[in-house]
Write a structure and sequence with these properties.
Blueprint lengths: L9 E3 L8 E6 L12 H5 L3 E6 L16 H15 L4 E6 L1 H15 L6 E5 L16 H12 L4 H4 L2 H20 L12 E6 L7 H5 L9 E6 L10 H12 L9
Parallel strand pairs: 2-3, 2-4, 4-5, 5-6, 6-7
Antiparallel strand pairs: 1-3
Helix pairs in contact: 2-3, 4-6
């Protein structure tokens, strides 16, 4: 059975229609849902993996970048509610974690909260972005790489790739910096916060601080690595997500 999609913001990353639950994934600044494509096989047959694409990249390359949080959150929230069968688990890495949190709040206000929220490599919502954005494109990539180690050498060494990638990254980082936390009630769903042991932007206290944003169960877990620990620890991360979300269909958070 195929899904009729009405929004360019959201698409399934594989065919797992018979899955018990769905995982909607939000990438980091400058990222695309392609980083989560392998998760379809890693979580099969239990979960169907969906990816969120922000404007200005991939299939949405002709659209202007997102500059304001409210319309972006509204768009993605509506797409999830309209297109993704529950139960729904949200996963977001870095900027994606913050967007996933705001979408979880939007779904809750609509009376259809997610079954679980997993945030990765993101400090608690009130904590501002630690990055200062220099004016030059190459200087921007160097600054991001020093703090996060997230820019491949092949990108930094290619003028064409710098010219293509830097505007996308800058727009996302400007979006992250512009975020203003508005206090509200804790989420009714459990939260799991994941991070890298050596990530200087998300110390253990910040990861554990996510417990304040749920009225349900909370767990934090750290893995070897820095901000982009996901690739090296992919199997362990997927195992952690599966264990923490088995309550969606089988009952009981582990």
């Amino acid at each position: 059975m195929s899904t009729v999609r009405a929004s360019a913001a959201l698409a399934p990353l594989g065919d797992q229609w018979a899955a018990s639950w769905r995982l909607v994934c939000f990438p980091h600044s400058g990222g695309t849902p392609a980083m989560f494509r392998r998760w379809t096989a890693g979580l099969a047959p239990d979960a169907e993996v969906w990816g969120v694409t922000l404007p200005g990249r991939a299939a949405r390359a002709d659209e202007p970048f997102a500059r304001d949080w409210a319309p972006l959150v509204a768009e993605v929230t509506r797409a999830v509610l309209d297109e993704v069968r529950p139960p729904v688990v949200l996963f977001g890495h870095s900027l994606g974690g913050l967007l996933a949190y705001e979408v979880a709040r939007g779904m809750t206000r609509a009376g259809e909260p997610p079954a679980h929220l997993v945030v990765s490599a993101r400090a608690t919502p009130p904590t501002p972005s630690p990055l200062f954005l220099p004016d030059g494109d190459r200087e921007l990539l160097d600054a991001v790489d020093r703090l996060y180690e997230g820019v491949p050498g092949i990108v930094r060494d290619s003028p064409d790739l710098v010219a293509h990638f830097a505007p996308i990254l800058r727009a996302d980082l400007e979006l992250a910096i512009s975020y203003e936390f508005r206090p509200g009630p804790p989420l009714p769903c459990p939260i799991t916060a994941l991070g890298g042991v050596d990530d200087p932007t998300v110390p253990a206290a910040e990861l554990d601080g996510w417990a304040r944003y749920t009225a349900a169960d909370f767990a934090g877990q750290r893995f070897p690595g820095r901000h982009f620990y996901l690739e090296a620890a992919e199997r362990e991360v997927l195992d952690a997500i599966w264990r923490r979300t088995t309550h969606v269909t089988y009952g009981g958070v582990r």
